[in-house]
Amino acid sequence: MKILLAPLDPVHDAGLKLIRRKLEALGYHCVLLPPDITVEEIGEAALAEKVDMIFVGRTVGYGVEQLFRRVRHVLTVQGVFSKVRIAIGGMAVTTELAQSLGFEAGYGPHTTIEEIHALIERNPELARHITHPVKHKPKFPFPHENTIKDSTTQKYLDEIVDGILDWTSNKTSPGVVRARITESQLRGVHGSVESYTALPFTRDYLAQCDEAVVDFFQKNICPPSVRQITQQEVDAYNHRIGIAKKHFHPRVLQHGRRKPLVFVQYGTGCPMMDGMHIKVAESWGADGVLHFDPAWGARTEGLMDGFLANVEDGTPVTYANLSLIKRSLDAATLWTVRAHRGLNTPEIAVLSGFLGADLTKINIVYGSICGGTDPARLTVDGVDAIRIAVRYHMPFDIPTNEELAGVPPHKAFAGMLIMAQLGRRLGAQPILKPLLCHGPYIMVNELMEQNYVDYNFAKIRALQTLADFPIWPGEPIGFMTHSEEKEQSATTTSLHVAMCSTLGVDAVTAASTDEAFSRGSITSAGRVGALRSIEEAFRFFGQTDIAPSAKANEWTEALVAGINQTLKAVAEAPSFVEAVYAGVLGNKADGVYPGRAGRNSVIATEPSGVEVPIELPADLAHRVSTFGE
Amino acid sequence: MTTARDTIVDALDIESFVLCESEKEARELVGKLMQSLGLSRFVIVSLDFNGPGAHFRVRAYTNKPGDNYTWLKE
Fold first, then answer.
1. How far apart are CA A275 and CA A285, in angstroms?
2. Which of A60, A146, A382, A395 could cross-link A364 (Cys pair, CB 3.0–4.6 Å)?
3. CB contact under 8 A, B59 and A311
């Protein structure tokens, strides 16, 4: 087939040159006319060259309709219009414009060579992967050795993990008991949301719950910020989601790189608003999403049920809410439900597992010193939650957002590695989640005065030196580097993504451009803004890396030493739990302290089967404060 | 859904630049602008005054989480 490429601009013909190169590579014979030609010369060339098809390009946008109207008139007079197939293209050209003027097709600035090829051959299948892209769910986390590489670190971690498993071996809690009841009930109804929601809540379950949850089930009283969503709303929502799915075209952000995957966190308070935000995020390229629950949910014994909306941050965890969100997801989207920090940690892991969540989130240390939960209680519950994660094949990530309160990175990372090694010992797949932030410790010690690159490099390199686990910085990356200004916020997020790309991490959690805006909820447009900026950063850097200065090596060594020093102090403590109470992994001077929710709720399981509540000595913190720091 | 405004998922942001001589004046102008557009429930997301005036982004929520969403109406 012979194709005439005709630029109708005084100087611009780069687009047609590119098309010529690609069409010739596909085996077509192309004739490219020079710029600064008349419409009449196009027709004359078409007749002289006996071409089968003409592409007329007009880069400049103004007056485009009048110009192509004249093209049609002149080519009709010359007898070309009826004999030769003609398509038009350019910055202001649309399919609608081309069809209204009687041309075969019109192509705009984002048209791909595959689409032009499909047009030439009149075979839409040739561009199907462009026009109807398919995104497959990646097998995540990506392969790693999942081992500790440093022998000193390994020794301390083994001692600590041995102690945790021994300490928890004869203990249970209301959270663990509820998780067993919930799991049994879900098995009884084969995971059916409708059947589970219709089940009467048993006295055994309610006996392990706080009054607010008992009131919800027995008196139908919701907490002040919560309302029940009607079935009519759910039906209308499902209809909306159906429309969104119908028009969904997946988008890949990474521009040829396999990683990092890009996750966004949701938790607007309402599962329906969450679902709509998820559809927006998926459509603009997010690979995964994370469910965030309200803070009060973590401090309340027991979970409510049904479709519930919370007017504050964090969407209540109920089986119905999670199932509504799950049904909204695209098949390629990875789904994480955080269980990690509160009194319902094992139970949330059960619900997530039954609904087929891809991942969960568990960190005993963070939840104990920053999440408000008693360390002893969360150690019992956390170990149980990891076992549940294993049963339901959910890898779990270990966030270290205690850095935001002022905990030095080496302490936060020591806690994270303890969790990772505990997870491996129990057969789980842990994922390290360092926080890339301009946090208080970093500010006070002026570690990012020069740039945001060197110290963040040091943090990731320190972890990569000590162990080979998947690394997924969050939550979100660039925490405390964002401002309320949209452009600044999007830029800092995208630059952090580019840095993470160089560091070879497996995934990132990205903020919306509303990250620093605290006077209202996050908007869907804010999610689009951040994801577009990330896409552009991937495009800009491609396979090119960012290089840190020599300072990064110095800080890497300091972090490695600090992590091992912290682990040594934990290993030397009477127990892991007492080390947490004593502040070895973060103390009041750092800005954190042991949580109180669930204090004295751990129950010893005697060999006789009798359960005995454990009361911790009042002077525990004093007794154990002689080691560590 | 009955109007175009009902199709907004959560909020309408307006971004522009106003000519003024102080940040205080800029905030007053933005407030008057939003009132004139019939968007009395608004919040200024960002406002940066310098030189000839202020670059601002102001937001009017149409649907907050937990509301009865306009985009779920028939």
1. 15
2. A382
3. no
